[in-house]
Specification:
The protein has 401 residues and is mainly beta. It has two domains: 27-120, Immunoglobulin-like; 128-399, no CATH class. It is built from four helices and 28 strands. Strands 13, 14, 15, 20, 21, 22, 23 and 24 form an eight-stranded antiparallel beta sheet that branches. Strands 3-2-5-6-7-1-4 form a seven-stranded mixed beta sheet, with no helix packed on it. Strand 9 (138-139) and strand 10 form a beta hairpin. The longest helix is centred in the N-terminal third of the chain and has 16 residues, at 5-20. It is globular and about 65 Å long. The mean pLDDT is 91.
Length: 401
């Protein structure tokens, strides 16, 4: 077919118009003001990388410290920083690793300033850590949910004997997949809002845990294989949570019960099977009894939803951040909205499933990674960032034995 010159000019003009007439991409200059939260005098940042992740498309842009400004397309972003700092005090000097995070930053308006607080990463000599959370449980042979076989594995990540006596295990009051517009009062930077406080009994040295060894806390310490071949044997667990006033709960008299200082339920405590809460371990200060804790650490609050609805007064309990040894935020990867602990406790989150469904999560856990070996002892990764420290959707270790 012979093309007329006028036809070609018209086609070219139309294509040019289509290209030129697209809505322009709005961009904003983002400036990061970075401060260090630390008790180390004279600590200064020396290097690091800011990572901006677009929430809608997962694209990432990075900015090297000491640069503080970057141009981004308007949108919702998560910001993380990992870097290093040095300190000099009298004749001492040293280097530490630092990190910080901000979530759901609505970048727009041409100019946008972010206040980012960074924290010194875990530099302790080792302590107990949460090594494994098996939350969803199993299906029975009929394909129905089976209850009672949830467990938590706590690991001595140090090179010395630690005592589990008084160790506290807790579940968050808030869900990582459901963020409130406002919580009043907001106590996150001073304490963790919790719905359960379960304490390992003992007089101080009744329950030694060797370096590189674990203890198992579980729901029902029985051999679940007898009722459900798809499950596991928990009859040799170290501790179980049990409610003696409940007709629904099962007790193994051969396994010591945790002391329940507080729980939102008085029947049976089932850890969140969808995996959308945070979990932590900690220690109570010397002399803190159950009665005193209940009297002094109640948390009364209200929350506001995105639509402006304000809740009725709510009551749970709080656990001060300085008492917390380790914390892990768990949330469905596609539905996670926020961390429900302070950033200095956990910079990231891990997940059992991509989505918030028991069917997808069943039979899976979150499992802390091994950092290295010290002789024959495994040292588990502990950077206070669950996105880094954990393998998501892993096979529970007790299912491989």
């Amino acid at each position: 077919m012979k093309k007329h010159p006028f036809y070609l000019v018209t086609l070219f003009t139309a294509l040019l118009c289509l290209t030129a007439c697209k809505d322009p991409v709005e961009t904003t200059i983002v400036t990061v003001n970075t401060t260090i939260d630390t008790s180390i005098d004279g600590l200064q940042l020396t290097e690091g990388t800011y990572t901006f992740e677009n929430v809608s498309n997962a694209k990432q842009l990075t900015l090297a410290y000491p640069n503080q400004s970057i141009e981004l397309e308007d949108g919702l972003y998560n910001l993380s920083f990992i870097g290093k700092g040095v300190y000099r005090h009298d004749s001492l000097s040293g280097e530490v690793e630092v990190q910080g995070v901000r979530s759901n930053l609505a970048v727009s308006g041409g100019n946008y300033t972010v206040e980012l607080t960074v924290f010194v990463r875990n530099v302790s000599d080792g302590d107990f850590v949460i090594a494994e959370l098996f939350l969803p449980g199993t299906f029975n042979e009929a394909g129905k949910q089976y209850n009672g076989d949830q467990y938590v594995r706590i690991y001595n990540n140090s090179d010395k004997v630690l005592y589990a006596d008084g160790l506290v295990f807790m579940e968050s009051a808030f869900m990582t997949t459901s963020k409130y517009k406002v919580v009043d009062p907001d106590i996150m930077n001073e304490a963790m809002a919790i719905n359960t406080v379960a304490v390992v009994p003992g007089n101080g040295q009744d329950h030694p845990v060797q370096p590189g060894e674990s203890i198992i806390l579980c729901d029902n310490a029985i051999n679940h294989k007898e009722a459900n071949p798809n499950s596991i044997d928990l009859s040799k667990a170290d501790f179980e949570w049990y409610f003696p006033d409940s007709k629904l709960d099962v007790d193994n008299p051969e396994v010591e019960n945790l002391s329940i200082y507080y729980c939102y339920t008085k029947t049976i405590w089932i850890l969140n099977k969808q995996g959308n809460r945070a979990y932590a371990i900690g220690r109570l200060p010397q002399g803190m009894t159950a009665d005193r804790y209940i009297a002094e650490y109640k948390y009364d609050y209200t929350y506001e939803l995105d639509n402006g609805t304000v809740s009725k007064p709510q009551s749970q309990y709080k656990f001060p951040n300085e008492w917390i040894v380790d914390a892990v935020n768990v949330g469905a990867n596609n539905e996670w909205q926020w961390n429900v602990t302070a950033s200095k406790l956990d910079m990231g989150h891990t997940y059992i499933g991509q989505n918030n469904t028991i069917a997808e999560n069943i039979g899976k856990c979150v499992l802390r990674k091994v950092s290295h070996k010290d002789g024959s002892r495994e040292v588990l990764l502990d950077t206070d960032n669950s996105s880094v420290d954990f393998t998501p959707a892993a096979t529970p270790t007790l299912f491989t034995k």
